[in-house]
Write a structure and sequence with these properties.
2 helices
Length: 60
């Protein structure tokens, strides 16, 4: 069995910001604009990766 036989065909993906087809150059987004929108959401705190309550912010 070859690697191609085990790998399912790639399904077309949609941009997580606007839903348009993904552009290979900006993957997983469709454009620089959507990439920047996503970055802005991370930088402004709209997206947050939760941590455990016992995680110390400053271990010193």
């Amino acid at each position: 069995m070859t690697d191609q036989a085990r790998t399912p065909p790639a399904t077309p993906r949609a941009c997580p910001i606007c839903g348009k087809p993904v552009a290979q150059a900006f993957r997983p987004f469709c454009s620089p604009r959507c990439r920047d929108v996503d970055l802005n959401r991370w930088l402004t705190g709209r997206y947050v990766v939760p941590g455990r309550e016992d995680d110390a912010e400053d271990p010193e």
